[in-house]
Amino acid sequence: MSGKACAALVLGEDTKAFLAVIRSLGRAGLEVHVAWCPWNSAALESRYISHIHALPQYRSDKHDWLEAFNRLCREHHFELIIPCSDATILPLQLHRRELEFATRVCPMPDDVYRTFFSKEETYVLARGLGVPLPEQVAAGTMEQVREAAERFGYPIVLKPKASAAKTNPQVRQPVVKVRREQDLETIAAPVLHNGEILVQQNFQGVGIGVEVLAKDGEILTAFQHERIHEPRRGGGSSYRKSVPLHDGMLDATRRLMKAVRYTGVAMVEFKYNPRTDLWVLIEINARFWGSLPLSIAAGLDFPRYLYEMLCRGRTDFPQRYRLNLYARHWSTDLQWMLGNLRDDHRDPDLMSLPLHKVAAEIVNVALLRERSDTLVWDDPRPALGDLRGFVEHKLFTITERLGLARRLRSAGTLEAVRAARRLVFTCHGNICRSPFAAAVLRQKRRDGIVCSSSGCFPKEGRRSPDAAIQAAARFGIDLAAHRSNVMTQDDADAADLILVFDRANVDELGALFTGIAGKVHYLGALDPARSLEIADPYGSDVEAFVRCYERIYAIVCKAWGTLPA
């Protein structure tokens, strides 16, 4: 490309697909802008990023994000806008008619979006095309889940109808597996809280992904990978290899793309049993996928091809790629290895591997047939940031159990409490823990302290659960009138102290806001004899809320009651 570089806007979050797209377009000579990405993402350290833009968080009840998005597009005239995750695709899809530059966003008609992003509608389409599928039923109650489990037998798979919810697309709704009858209610109840789910018969096999670039339903190029290290609780693989295209799965993928005249990139996920040679469709990801770095390393550069197809009209792309090439995402694979050490290797459903097989993977490094998702010679900093985040999480787990570390943390938090005049209690939804803690402090507070509560769930006005209201009443706290508040950057800037309840709260705040690291402290640090984290009781009964509130009440009363007047 000559002259001024064309600009592309990439929206995403992780060091897998998001980072791979940034690198691909940057190496192709495009000026890469990014937005709607967590501020603590290691991907932001990439040398291929030209500009990082701050956009308001998506809110289903406010449109300031939409105005800011349109203004950003007007200022920079992006040639292509690529959302890389469900959380960034869903808002743009819901508001396509309000986007001033909708034609520059990767195209997906509403009917195609509904079909591919609804697991239930994908199932209906595939069944009509004769694509092999595991049996499944919809369930809205625990009784219906039990009936499905009796019909299918254990293990069973519980799936949300869509991976992301309209009210809070930032939180991915997980697929979970129930292996034993005695675990059914514990695992299924939280999933049912979000509405009707799909209960699916388990299919024993390895994960396979067929990745394609298509135009008007015609596949222009395709790639296939096989999962080597699969997380036991579901999710993307941390280690996988390139394999030859399977005729049957490729034909099924071709029929699915043709049925909806799909244009764009997609990864069609299958399960394959090598002993029986049977396979089934699992789902379709109509976006870039987590194993994207492998296909690029093997010779098929899907992000660049997508740009050239949509913006340059190109339709002829390479068809061959390197086989038996491996790629590893080191931080998630280290986590997989720790879990694999604890797994029962006799249970084939866990997809665990004997230690000697894991150790033998060093051969792939020696033969130069292994790549890293994050560590590349021309852009090493994201890999260092990714591993730094992994180490910080592990150190958190270790130091929480060390008495000296807990006492030092407690002293630091108490010092911050003594100095703070404007403080905010923050949890995920601002309907359970944070409003209760703030209400207790307002009962006990001294003059001069301004206390509030907020959450990261992107919708205001949500009420506290009935169980929370009943439990709070036992402590003389009325939560009936409470309505949730969403934290903003201005709120974070104004606070002297932000008190949180668990590690997930810290991660959310770090992803959404800048300049807050020194302000964030755990409320549980003021009670060093017990766990640092105070677990979220959401979805539990009244007695679980009471136990949670007993600890919060005691901490607040002791900490602020002992402060000098």
Structure commentary:
The protein is globular. The chain has helices spanning 17-27, 64-76, 86-94, 110-117, 119-128, 142-152, 184-192, 247-260, 292-298, 302-312, 330-342, 355-359, 362-366, 381-399, 403-419, 433-444, 466-473, 489-494, 503-512, 542-561, and strands at 7-11, 31-35, 49-53, 80-83, 136-139, 156-160, 176-178, 197-201, 206-215, 218-229, 239-242, 264-273, 278-285, 326-328, 370-372, 422-427, 450-455, 497-500, 520-522. The strands form four sheets. The protein has a seven-stranded mixed sheet with strand order 13-12-9-10-11-14-15, with helices on both faces. It has a four-stranded parallel sheet with strand order 3-2-1-4. It folds into four domains: 7-105, NAD(P)-binding Rossmann-like Domain (Rossmann fold, 3-Layer(aba) Sandwich); 112-120 and 203-393, ATP-grasp fold, B domain (D-amino Acid Aminotransferase, Chain A, domain 1, 2-Layer Sandwich), CATH 3.30.470; 135-201, 2-Layer Sandwich (Dna Ligase, domain 1); 400-561, 3-Layer(aba) Sandwich (Rossmann fold), CATH 3.40.50.2300. The protein has 20 helices and 19 strands. Helix 1 links the parallel strand 1 (7-11) and strand 2 (31-35). The model has no long low-confidence stretch (mean pLDDT 90). With 565 residues, it is α/β, with parallel strands linked by helices.
Please give the CATH architecture of the largest domain.
2-Layer Sandwich
Counted by DSSP, the helix tally is 20
Q: What is the CATH C level class of the largest domain, in words?
A: Alpha Beta
What is the number of domains? 4
- CATH H-level homologous superfamily name of the largest domain: ATP-grasp fold, B domain
Could you report the average pLDDT, rounded to the nearest whole number? Answer: 90
